[in-house]
Known about the structure:
The protein is built from three helices and six strands. By secondary structure, it is of the alpha+beta class.
Amino acid sequence: MTDGSADFHARVGEPLPKGLPVATKEMVIEALKTVQDPELMLDVWSLGLIYDVDIHDDGDVFIRMTLTAPTCPIAGEMPGMVAAAVAGVNGVGIVDVSLVWDPPWTLDRLSEELKLVLGI
């Protein structure tokens, strides 16, 4: 919780052994696309719920994410779901996910592909 605004937090994984290649951002994004918002049945990446993905040289990954609304009933579960998915990527060490509400999520955060599908 680096910025003080995180209400929910998850940390999973183990340090990546030295000498192993570190995962790319593209690999992490593919893992994020496997995590669906259970109410909307759309993935967290396409929904624009992921604000930051920071991959360190040691393979540790730090993610800031949000949800569509602070009253979301699965708010306490989503950081853990995201952390578990990313921790399964080869080349990832510890995954630290913080759920934040600032800035608030808006429809502008949807991926271009999803905007086309939804007609937005």
